Amino acid sequence: MTISIDYTNMMSTAVAGGISDTEWAGSVATFEAAHARFRELAASEVVGFVGAATDEKLLSQSVEFAESARGNFDDVVVLGIGGSALGTIALRTALLAYGWNALDAAARRGFPRLHVLDNVDPVTIAGLLGRVDLARTLWIVISKSGGTAETMSQFLIVHSRYIEAGLEPARNFVFVTDPTQGALRPLAQSLGVRALDIPSNIGGRFSVLTPVGVLPTALSGIDVRALLEGAADMARRCETAELGRNPAGVYAVSQWLSDTGHGRTMNVFMPYSDQLRDLADWFVQLWAESLGKVRRDGEFVGQTPLPALGATDQHSQVQLFMEGPENKTLTFVSVKERGVDLEISGQFPDVTGVAYLAGHSLAELIDVELRATAGALAKRGRPNLTIAIDRVDPWHLGGLIMLLELATAYAGQLYGVDAFDQPGVELGKQFAYAMLGRPGSEAAVKEWETLPRPDARWQV
Ligand code: PA5
C-alpha cells in the first residue's frame, strides 16, 4: 500500500521554466522552519486535524452510533455545506458510487443510501423530501459553528415535516457540531437529539476525518478504521522536516515555489479516475479557502485551484492548459490497480482507425492518457506532478486526504497566512443577515445601504 509523488515535471531539469535545483535547495531550510511552526501549532493543540486520525474516542462516537442505527434507516441525508459536506461527497463518490469495488452487493444489503444536501436550492431539497420515507430516514445535521444559515434553514424545514406528520423527530436526527459552541448544542439538548463532536480545534475544511465524514461513511458500511489508518500512516511519514522525504512538504513547496517564483498562480487538480472526481472539489475548497488571503503586509496571496477530470478534460480544458496562459501547475492523481478492467476487443482488424486499440484495456488506456498528457505538458513547459495511489480504497483515501491537508497547512506557513481561518467570507454573510433581518446585523444593514444600487445605464 503506497502513495507516492513524482514531481520530476515540476523541475527545470524536465520542464523549461520549472523549479531549479538551486531554488529547491534554497527552500529546504524554509520548509524546515515552516514544518517546525506547524508542528508547534499541532503540539499545542491549536490545530487538531492530524490528531483526528488516531483519536479512538472520537472514532468510537461514529462507530457506536452507526452500529446502533444499523437496519433502522433506508436513507441517510447529510445537511451541511462547505467543509461539512465536501469531504463526505468525495468519500461517497470514491467508495460507494461505483459498486463493484466499494462493497459488494451482499455486504451493502442493510446499509442505507447516502445523500448530501450541500446547498439551499429548493428544487433539490423538495425533490429529496418527496422521495424519502421520513420514518426511515436519518438526517445528519453537520455544522461546526452550529449556526450556518444554509444548514439551519435545511434543518428547520426538514424538522417541521416531522412535526406536521406527527412523527417524533428525535430518533431521525443526529447533530455533528462543536462540543460547546453554537446553536446546535442547546437544540440537541432540548430536542433530545444525539450530538457528536467536531473537536473545537478542527475547522470545517479540515474535518473530514472527524464525525463530519466518518459518521456518514460508517453508516454506509465503509471501513472507517482503514480510512483513519491510512491518514495516520501519512501523518507519520510527514513527521520528518527533511523536505525530500516528506510528501506533503514536497507538494506544498513545489506549488508555493511555482506560484511565487514562476507565476504559476493556478493549481489544476486532475485525477484520472471517476471515483476521485469529487475529491477535486474537496481539494479546491481546502486550497482556496485556506490559502487565498491578505497577508499581514497587505500582499494578496494564494494559488487558485481548479478541478478537472482525466481523461474527460483532455477533450475540454487541456487545450487551455497546453496553450493558454503559462500560469498553471497540474496535479494528476493516478490509480495503479482499478480492481476491474475491460479489454478492448478487436472486431475490425482492417479498420486502421480502431484496429490499434485491440488487445489493450481501458485501465491501460486511461493510464497511458495520463502519462501522455503529463509528457506533452512538460514538453510545452507546463509543470505538473503525479500523485500515485495503489487503489481507491479507504486506506489510500485517508492517506491522500492527510497528504493534502498537511500540504495545505505547510503552504499556509510558506505563504505566511493563517490557513485555518476564512475572514473573507464574513462580509457576504453579514450582508445576507442584514437582508434577512437577523438581530445584531444593524451595522451591516447600514453598510449594505451605502452600496451602489443597480444602475439603469448598465442594464440590458
Ligand atoms: O472550511 C470551513 O470552515 C467552511 O467552509 C465551513 O465548513 C462552512 O462555512 C460551513 O460551516 P459550518 O460547519 O460552521 O456550518
Describe this structure in words.
This protein has helices spanning 21-43, 56-69, 86-95, 99-102, 105-108, 122-131, 149-164, 184-191, 211-219, 224-237, 247-262, 277-291, 318-323, 352-355, 362-379, 394-415, 426-436, 442-449; strands at 3-6, 75-79, 113-117, 137-143, 173-177, 194-197, 266-271, 293-294, 300-301, 304-307, 328-335, 384-389. The N and C termini lie far apart (58 Å). The model is unreliable at 100-104 (pLDDT under 50). The protein has 18 helices and 12 strands. The chain has 2 domains: 3-41 and 229-415, Glucose-6-phosphate isomerase like protein, domain 1 (Rossmann fold, 3-Layer(aba) Sandwich), CATH 3.40.50.10490; 51-222, Rossmann fold, CATH 3.40.50.10490. It is globular and about 65 Å long. It has 460 residues and is of the alpha/beta class. The site of 5-phosphoarabinonic acid has 14 residues, from loops.
